[in-house]
Design goal:
The chain is of the alpha/beta class and about 425 residues long. It contains 16 helices and 20 strands. The protein is globular and about 65 Å long. Keywords: ATP-binding, Cell cycle, Cell division, Cell shape, Cell wall biogenesis/degradation, Cytoplasm, Ligase, Nucleotide-binding, Peptidoglycan synthesis. Pathway: Cell wall biogenesis; peptidoglycan biosynthesis.
Length: about 425
């Protein structure tokens, strides 16, 4: 079946499902494959559960005219998404970066939705499957689509751009993330900059942090760039007013107090403000959008728990974000400060050194207590309490009581799932 024909079916049944456990009535089921599953086996079940069609790529499972047989289900999904993006009149904003992508995406959506009909990447569905699903969520009346793009190897952002064909782009930052795949910090910069490469090649618009020397240098002579800065006169002025604990900032004599902790969230807010100004969203509406946004999903949340104040930042971690979180924690006021730090993944050969650097930094910042969790932190040279697994930490915490009214930081990579600490402290 040609992509145009499949798109006509999609327009009639514009709901895509890839998981038979979440089938919606009159959706199209795409039988994706993975290392440990074969969606083709569940195509008939998807139809029985209400799907209108099932797209498969193994002939033996084509049991009816509701089974659409293609050469490759994933490739078909991607081609359909690209076709639909071209069919739509929506303007596409793409963003990537080492840290802060999802928070920035949500802030941009909060601001722009004050004036426009928007859609945005759900959660962090930002890879070769998530981006197509986001593009396919564009409706007939969608005016702006905000598409988050993640990558851990070269050429991935380039490929995602070929699907999304963004009109605008923004890179949050370049940090020590996914070094195992990118090879080095220079590799990270090169990989993330594939978004800039696409936009400049096609003469599209770029938003930048004018205070970031890497971005400033890369785009110094590019005309279609719009930046924010605290001191660069050629860019839109947004001033950082502090973060104790919540980020405060100012633009056009308008002061904003966000619900986001840490100075590292200033640029995330500033990017959303910049785009709001570019798209002519009113200052009052921008202020309301930023101040109303509340973080969730274990991202820089401040919660009260059994008398303690907890900064729950357990969604992800790399050396750059870990350093920022610790430095911010050091500036916060607390009677008794405790940091739970979990392993940082996908660092490859630099993992031992980077975990040792973080342990050393924690020592320099002189917290009341630091507890390290994970195989990498367990190998560090430090006097801090170390546990090679969460199970060991759990056993330790059963017999350990934290000081009353402690200020607690919980930070680690997603695979560590350190939010489980809340169940045992």
């Amino acid at each position: 079946m040609k992509t145009a024909q499949l798109h006509n079916i999609f327009l009639e049944f514009p709901e895509i499902c890839t998981d038979t456990r979440k089938i919606k009535e009159n959706s199209i089921f795409f039988a994706l494959k993975g290392d440990n599953f074969n969606g083709n086996k569940y195509a008939s079940a998807a139809l029985e559960n209400g799907a209108a069609y099932a797209v498969i790529d193994e002939k033996e499972y084509a049991e009816s005219d509701k089974h659409i047989l293609v050469d490759d289900v994933l490739k078909t999904l991607q081609e359909l998404a690209s076709f639909h993006r071209n069919y739509s009149n929506a303007r596409v904003i793409a963003l990537t970066g080492s840290n802060g992508k999802t928070t920035t995406k949500e802030l941009i959506n909060a601001v722009l939705s004050k004036k426009y009909r928007t859609i945005a990447t759900k959660g962090n569905l930002n890879n070769h499957i998530g981006v197509p699903l986001t593009l396919l969520s564009i409706k007939e009346d969608t005016e702006i689509a905000i598409v988050e793009m993640g990558a851990n190897h070269q050429k991935e952002i380039e490929f995602l751009c070929s699907l999304a064909l963004p009109d605008f782009g923004y890179i949050t930052n370049f940090g020590k993330a996914h070094i195992e795949g990118f090879g080095s910090e220079e590799g990270v910069i090169k990989g993330k900059s594939e978004l800039y490469d696409f936009l400049t090649k096609h003469n599209k618009h770029i938003f930048i942090n004018g205070d970031d020397p890497i971005q400033f240098k890369k785009l110094g002579s590019y005309i279609k760039k719009y930046g924010f800065s605290s001191d660069q006169k050629e860019f839109y002025r947004i001033e950082f007013l502090g973060a104790n604990p919540f980020v405060k900032l100012s633009f056009e004599n308008c002061n904003i107090e966000s619900q986001l902790i840490g100075s590292y969230n200033f640029t995330n807010c500033a990017a959303a403000i910049l785009m709001g100004k570019y798209f002519n969203v009113g200052v009052d509406k921008i202020k309301d959008a930023i101040e109303s946004y509340s973080p969730n999903n274990n991202r820089s949340q401040i919660i009260s728990h059994k008398g303690h104040q907890i900064i729950l930042d357990a969604y992800n971690a790399n050396p750059t974000s870990m350093k920022a979180a610790l430095e911010n924690f050091a500036q916060m006021e607390g009677i008794h400060k405790v940091a739970f730090l979990g392993d940082m993944f996908e660092l490859g050969e630099i993992a031992p050194a980077e975990h040792q650097n973080i342990a050393n930094l924690a020592r320099e910042l002189n917290f009341d207590d630091v507890i390290l969790v994970g195989e990498n932190f367990y190998k560090t040279s430090t006097s801090y309490k170390k546990h090679s697994s969460f199970g060991e930490l759990k056993d330790f915490l059963k017999d350990q009581k934290l000081s009353p009214e402690s200020l607690i930081l919980i930070k680690g990579s997603r695979g560590m799932a350190l939010e489980r600490i809340l169940d045992v402290v």
